[in-house]
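WARN  no MSA supplied for this record, continuing single-sequence
INFO  ligand: adenosine-5'-diphosphate
INFO  echoing inputs
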Amino acid sequence: MITKVYILMFCIGFQFSIEAQEIHKRSLGLMGSNFDITVVAQNQTQAQAYIDTAVNEIYRIEKLISSWKPESQTSAINRNAGIQPVKVDKELFDLIKRSKGISQLTDGAFDISFAAIEHIFSFKGQQTTWPSQDVIDASVKNISYQNIVLDEKNQTVFLKYKGMRIGFGAIGKGYAADKAKALLVEKGVSGGIINASGDMNTWGTQPDGSAWKVAITNPMDKTKNFGLFDLNREAVVTSGNYEKFIMVDGQRYAHIIDPRTGMPTQGIISATVFAPKAELADALATSIFVMGSEVGINLINQLPGVEAIIVKDDGTLVLSNKIKIKSK
Ligand code: ADP
Ligand code: MG
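INFO  complex generated
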């Protein structure tokens, strides 16, 4: 009898806490992008405290990895290119090491040393001609992930040649989403979404127990989408050429650079990647623009737990093995 009462009390308590869970969201600018942070919490006060924790974590990461902030360790590495190795935090060292790993995985399509050429292009839509081949050649020779020298023992990073640069534009938001999520999971937050302008990581479920869902917009017609996807692979990231691009002779080029030629890429409008981690999804979505849809989808199909939806610039879709599109 006593046991029964206890069970009943437990059930009442359990139901109460489930019912009290609510979804709270805050939108703000971080890392030069719009972030939406959503958490499941019991009340407004608790939710705001959780969201503050995530925001502080993202600020901390930005301060460490941003190549735009002169005081960051990344900027110190860049300033010392061709001069000397720079000792960095283990966190940054490991991020660079994983980035080099993704360069190997993608046969050099992904390369954080693309940044050596970044300054010769402007992707705000006004640039209509290419820089001269001499200018391109002078910078492209400095793109080479093999020349990012990591010294594990001393925890230093050295860019071998003057003129080399690194930047985390293609992976940083994904990394920040993963880290903010990990911190909130550690604090016991049962579910949420860290969405960095379409680069997102999710965990847990909505308060009613259903999966978080994402609608993937059709870039050819933004009033339509490819259907609602359950986020049981947790992270989903989209790279597109519709916000930052260059138009030359009526052709649109993405803000993603082919490390082999130093030229902006063409042929793909958007690449959406589902993966267990936003960092990997972010890097792969960028890489697909460089690899092209055929090579890109072949790589995706070889990676367990990773799926992709690619939209080519003629509007055709290239889907990985497990993606089923319900509607367009
Ligand atoms: P967004 O930042 O718009 O979400 P991406 O994740 O695709 O888009 O990242 C594009 C950014 O990645 C560029 O603005 C640039 O900073 C960086 N980048 C460009 N080309 C490469 C490349 N080949 N490898 C790694 N990073 C790149
Ligand atoms: Mg990316």
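The CA atoms of residues 187 and 277 lie 19 Å apart.
INFO  checksum written, moving to next record
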